[in-house]
Design brief:
Chain B is built from twelve helices and two strands, in the order αααααααααααββα. By secondary structure, chain B is mainly alpha-helical. Chain B has a two-stranded antiparallel ribbon with strand order 1-2. The longest helix of chain C has 30 residues, at about 120-150. The model of chain C is unreliable at about 1-15 and about 380-385 (pLDDT under 50). Classes of the chains: A alpha/beta, B mainly alpha, C mainly alpha.
């Protein structure tokens, strides 16, 4: 067992000690023999890539899942945690990535839920009001207890979550990717609050995949990779570079071999695209960009800064609220929307970010998923009947060329692994030989072998003169594939760099919009 | 005024009588839907309890034992619904349909087998029914203008289940908005994951809501056969469970508006018969069927968002599964 | 504007762990068997012999030509309403309004017959009536469909409401408008014989095959044609592809350029039209007049038929036949033994919906465990870790 914090020489037993935690979901081992020690009154970071098993581990600690094996100790006592109520009783609180709040409740009601202090609400409410006022004053957690949570901004909702945990007397607090949805100012404010909590003796576990946060606020850090705990470090004794290498477990993604780009004409031109969603929130804010034949343009940014919406507008799924989009000679704006079907006719293909939700239909046979969006093509359908034999044969060919395994078009789409599903989706879009290819998160949940295959395909598309727009939260992927990189922040494009001049740190700063915080404040 | 006034009083009196099962069943529906379970089996539960109450009341000559049996039958069906769609995550609509069909057949099958009266129970008399309660002095004040008839006809002279039903409204309101149970209930229907992470069992909350729903439907059903009527008739609930469902939507899942929706629908029911063949100025003769269909039409119009928005509890109809 | 709607969970989603024959063959059979076992226990508690009751019902349903005719006549209605529920299901919609759509479909048939039976021969009248049944049934489904597609009104609730509205409307029309003058019971006049669909015993007699008289008429052929058409539509046309896409994953459908609004309306209208054909069987085939409640119960039974038939035409024919036999055999049972009312069938129907529908997942878990124990597990796939 690795001792995590040599700096804490206190005589207290550690706040949390996990030993030999195992957990699997079906055939997937999410946690394997995980050990973790968190000293009292420290901020402990846990880093790892998406899917490294961080969230699963914390869900086990919070009692949301039961470990297959392993021991949990809280404050030096073995503490079986069979459900969230056990964790709460042991003083463990958790702020989930997706807030666990009831929108139609007031802040007060949300805080009270599960800690009502009696069968009637009245007395508990009065007591809670006083206690919340105290917590607000202690930690600077100002929020109106009578506001409806549904009306609050994201940063304030997070405060409600913190108040919920503190109100229950949590002295151990788990935060799961707390800054993923926050603006830099909100994140900074959060860190101030967390520091204030630590100074009052609260132990904090911070799950993140952002190394700058680890460096900025934690005392100790543990690194997870592929379900295992691979290292424990004192934050002061480590560097971002070391952590990055530990996270990935090898020299970070191979730079993909590619020749210099030879961009041609502009094939897609966006001019001041804005999108206001159903809830009236501005999701895209005046996005302008050009996409040229024979280049890969990467869109970098923290999740939720408008990348998904950009893809939806560019692919015709949603019409822009304002601004214009030209694809070849077709001009699209709010009053002249272009449905996805027409976009496909304009030779624009789209590999969606979330293939499970959008790119395929799990219950469909592979051959049916392989024509999704192109099912009206005369090659696939006659005037009335689908040309099933032709489609199956066509899918067979795609599976062969893209090495989709098992190569059986009759299997349902959800019986393939993530990588094979993605290859099937990619085959469907790429083999149309599009002029414009929009690609979202091409390698999310995809195994290593398939990643390299997919990257090669994208480069080949570029060589063939296709204009490729690549959206990815994996900065390395953006850096290694793109010719130009645009950075998105809060629905806007806040910067553009040629890939040759770019490095991760520089893009990372732009993603946090570090140089333009006042503007962001004015916009928020 | 005289006669006209008395007619109005009598119409309101009838409104109260027909509204009772609507109020109870709509509140029952409100409680389950607030917990995130859709129950279109209100009709079936009422029918089952109407039969159970009548059969038991006839056998034991006790309306109260009948009520007990009605409530037990209804709660058992509510638990069946829970078993199917909470424990086994079956489709809530399908389960409700199944219960409605099952009960519609079972009540008659058992009725024929037990009483050999073509599906009816023998008529109930005396203590086998809930008899009208006469308020003190009701007879004495009958002739006092205005207030007399209101007291003696409208307020007095109902059976105890009528008063119980109206009492249920503030009770449910209090339960939903003023108690721990209510807070958890409302949260379960909106965001069950929030309830789960707060250390509260979603499954337990939903089962409790279903049991309450069963109790209320059981009282409503018993009222049909041992309060309002005197014995069980086949299909005697005649779609009232669906009117109650409509009233619950019309009242936007809130107890007091639901009460008024039930009274409105009950009023439409009560005047439908009186308006038959009556010429109304401007409109002309109102087809009675139109008035009977009006609750359904109004509910559709409401659902279409033309008169305000009816927003159901967010999680209703969705089985709760922990995601990973 | 796209509407965000609540889809019922897919009723027919397969299990990755079980082989197809267990999933679509054995499990549904066990569920139906459970429904019958419970029915048998019920009969036993009523003091009757369930085996004898079964025997009487079987004989009553299949024992002689006339009974067979009745069984197939009921089956015809169940195929129509079962297909109706299935088509909507494939589009992710629960059409509970088959009852009202069948009723209004019949109104269409009756209007066409009453208006034209004096002028047109059967050959011209039949297609008009078929069209009228489809249009009226589809029309009655269109409003809830439109409200679901454009305003997000829950189609389950609106179709329930439309059943009641249809019932009131039909009472009004029959009592006030189409009632035969000088008659007490709310019925239309009898259609002229040019509007009578030939009985099956008449049709078979043309070929020299004499069978006993029964209400079975040529609608059965229409129902079987509909099965083929629905099968083709759902699995072999792009419209069916789009319906299934919307039903299985509306978001992916939007990505694929399919408009869920259009598909919801399309699926519901097809569903309503199929329900409307009950009017052909009942009014042109048997009653030869418009009357109250001729569609009673068929719409709801369609839900049971579709669930039991796993939303597939072949399954629906088999389930329709089973329910046809239950209806006919149950009537026979009630006739022979007064301890039973025909409502026994309604009970069995409720149990089938319960076990085949609401409790359809109940045995899947145990079955999966049993299957895994009986068979060595395949090598675990190389799956990415997704937490």
């Amino acid at each position: 067992m690795t001792a995590a914090g040599s700096s804490t020489s206190s005589a207290f037993p550690p706040a949390i000690e996990l030993r030999g935690i195992n957990k699997h979901f079906g055939p997937v081992q999410a946690n394997r023999d995980v050990d973790l020690t968190v000293p009292v009154g420290t901020i402990h970071g846990i880093v790892g890539e998406n899917g490294a098993g961080k969230s699963t581990l914390m869900s086990i600690l919070y009692g949301f899942y039961q470990a297959d094996s392993g021991v949990i100790e809280v404050g030096g006592q073995v503490c079986p945690i069979h459900g969230p109520e056990y964790a709460l009783a042991a003083g463990i609180g958790m702020v989930h990535q997706h807030f666990m709040l009831v929108d139609i409740f007031t802040v007060l009601e949300n805080i009270l839920l599960g800690a009502e202090g009696g069968a009637l609400l009245g007395p508990g409410m009065a007591a809670a009001r006083a206690e919340i006022a105290r917590l607000e004053a202690d930690y600077g957690l100002e929020v109106d207890p009578d506001a409806l949570v549904g009306d609050l901004a994201v940063g304030l909702r997070q405060r409600v979550e913190l108040l919920k945990a503190l109100y229950r007397g949590a002295n151990i607090l788990i935060l799961d990717e707390p800054t993923g949805v926050l603006t830099p100012q909100e994140a900074e404010r959060l860190f101030e609050i967390l520091t204030a909590m630590r100074d009052r003796g609260v132990t904090i576990i911070l799950i993140t995949h952002k190394l700058q946060e680890i460096m900025a606020i934690t005392d100790n850090v543990s690194v997870m990779r592929a379900g295992q705990m691979v290292a424990h470090r004192e934050t002061a004794q480590t560097t971002r570079e070391e952590l990055a290498e530990l996270m990935v477990g090898r020299q970070v993604l191979l730079r993909v071999e590619k020749s210099a780009a030879d961009p041609g004409d502009v094939v897609l031109h966006a001019d001041g695209l804005s999108l206001i969603d159903d809830a009236g929130v501005l999701r895209l804010d005046g996005v302008s960009l050009d996409l040229r034949a024979g280049e890969i343009v990467g869109i970098a940014g923290v999740t939720g800064n408008g990348q998904s919406e950009l893809l939806e507008v560019l692919s015709g799924i949603r019409p822009p609220s304002r601004g214009r989009l030209s694809v070849h000679d077709r001009v699209i704006d709010h009053d002249h929307p272009c449905e996805p079907e027409e976009m496909r006719d304009l030779n624009l293909a789209h590999v969606p970010e979330d293939r499970q939700r959008m790119g395929m239909i799990s219950a469909f046979a592979a051959w049916e998923t392989a024509i999704l969006g192109y099912h009206r093509d005369p090659a696939y359908t006659g005037p009335i009947l689908l040309k099933t034999d032709a489609i199956v044969e066509d899918t067979d060919g795609k599976m062969d060329r893209f090495d989709v395994r098992p190569a059986n078009p009759q299997l349902t789409s959800d019986s393939f692994s993530g990588g094979n599903q993605q290859k099937l989706v990619l085959a469907r879009e790429i083999e149309r030989r599009p002029d414009i290819l929009l690609v979202g998160q091409p390698t999310r949940g995809v195994d290593i072998g398939a990643i390299e295959f997919i990257h090669r395909q994208l480069i080949e598309m570029r060589h063939a003169g296709c204009a490729v727009l690549l959206v990815s939260v994996e900065l390395e992927e953006i850096l290694s594939l793109s010719d130009r990189i645009l950075v998105m922040f809060e629905g806007r494009i806040v910067g553009e760099v040629a890939a040759a001049d770019a490095d991760a740190q520089m893009i990372g700063l732009m993603m946090a919009n570090a140089h333009e915080t006042e503007n962001a404040a004015a916009n928020g | 005024m005289g006669e006209d006034f008395l007619l109005i009083i009598l119409t309101f009196d009838a409104t109260i009588r027909v509204s009772v099962p609507l109020i109870l069943a709509a509140l029952a529906g409100l409680i389950v839907e607030r917990s995130g379970v859709i129950d279109i089996g209100l009709e079936g539960k009422m029918l089952a309890s109407a039969f159970a109450a009548a059969a038991t009341a006839y056998t034991t000559n006790s309306a109260w034992l009948g009520l007990g049996a009605g409530v037990v039958a209804s709660v058992l069906l509510a638990l069946l619904h829970g078993f199917a769609c909470i424990t086994h995550r079956g489709n809530q609509i399908v389960s409700g349909v199944a219960i409605n069909i099952l009960v519609s057949g079972l009540t008659v099958l058992l009725g024929v087998s037990w009483f050999s009266l073509g599906g009816q129970t023998p008529p109930l008399t005396g203590d086998a029914r809930f008899n009208s309660l006469t308020f003190p002095g009701a007879e004495a004040v009958r002739d006092v203008p205005v207030l007399g008839p209101i007291y003696s006809e409208l307020l007095s002279g109902h059976n105890i289940l009528v008063y119980l039903a109206f009492l249920t409204v503030p009770m449910v309101w209090w339960l939903i908005y003023r108690t721990r149970f209510g807070l958890r209930l409302r949260a379960t229907g909106e965001n069950p994951a929030a309830v789960d992470t707060a250390g509260i069992s979603v499954i337990r909350m939903r089962y409790l809501a279903l049991i309450l729903c069963g109790i209320l439907c059981g009282i409503a059903g018993s009222y049909f056969s041992t309060g309002h009527g005197a014995g069980f008739l086949r299909e005697m609930t005649a779609g009232k469970g669906f009117i109650a469902l409509a009233a619950m939507i019309f009242g936007k899942w809130r107890p007091v508006p639901v009460l008024f929706a039930c009274l409105l629908f009950g009023f439409l029911d009560a005047i439908a018969i009186r308006l038959q063949g009556v010429e109304i100025p401007i409109i002309g003769e109102m087809p009675v069927q139109f008035i009977q269909a009006l609750p359904y039409i109004l509910t559709v119009v409401l659902l279409a968002g033309f008169i305000g928005r009816a927003i159901a509890p967010k999680a209703s109809g969705i089985p709760y599964v922990k995601e990973h | 504007m796209r509407t965000k709607q609540k889809m019922p969970p897919q009723m027919a989603n397969g299990s990755a762990k079980l082989p197809t024959w267990v999933d679509i063959g054995l499990l549904p059979l066990i569920n139906v068997a459970l429904a019958f076992v419970v029915s048998g226990l019920l009969i036993a508690t009523l003091g009757q012999d369930p085996f004898e009751a079964t025997w009487i019902m079987l004989r009553g349903a299949f024992g002689y030509e006339e009974s067979l005719g009745y069984t197939f006549y009921y089956t015809t209605n169940f195929i129509f309403t079962g297909l109706a529920v299935a088509v909507a299901f494939h589009g992710g919609l629960f059409n509970i309004g088959g009852e009202g759509q069948a009723y209004i479909g019949g109104l269409g048939v009756a209007i066409a017959c009453l208006a034209l039976d004096q002028y047109l021969p059967f050959g011209l009248l039949l297609p008009i009536c078929v069209l009228a049944a489809a249009l009226f049934g589809a029309g009655w489904a269109f409003i809830p469909a439109y409200l679901q597609a454009k305003r997000g009104s829950h189609v389950v609730i609106t179709t329930i409401m439309f059943n009641f509205i249809a019932a009131s409307l039909m009472v009004y029309l029959l009592v006030n408008v189409v009632i035969k003058p000088g008659q007490m019971s709310p019925e239309s006049r009898e259609f002229a014989s040019s509007a009578w669909l030939p009985y099956m015993h008449e049709a078979l007699a043309w070929f020299g095959w004499e069978v006993a008289q029964s209400p079975l008429n040529l609608s059965l052929i229409g129902a079987l044609v509909c099965c083929v058409l629905v099968w083709g539509l759902i699995w072999h046309t792009r419209w069916g592809y789009e319906i299934r896409a919307v039903g299985a994953n509306a978001e992916a459908a939007v990505y694929a350029g399919i408009s869920p609004s259009k598909i919801i309306i399309l699926a519901m209208c097809i569903s309503g039209a199929l329900s409307g054909f009950v009017g052909i069987n009942e009014l042109m085939g048997v009653q030869h007049r418009l009357l109250l409640d001729f569609a009673a119960g068929y719409g709801f039974t369609g839900i049971a038929v579709s669930l039991m038939g796993r939303n597939h035409p072949v399954g629906i024919i088999l389930a329709g036949l089973l329910f046809g036999a239950l209806y006919q055999g149950g009537a026979e049972l009630a006739f022979e033994n007064s301890a039973f009312s025909p409502d026994l069938i309604v009970v069995i129907q409720g149990l089938v919906v319960l076990f085949s529908g609401a409790l359809s997942y109940m045995l899947r878990g145990p079955m999966e465990r049993l299957y895994l124990r009986l068979r060595p597990p395949p090598p675990p796939p190389i799956a990415s870790v997704e937490a």
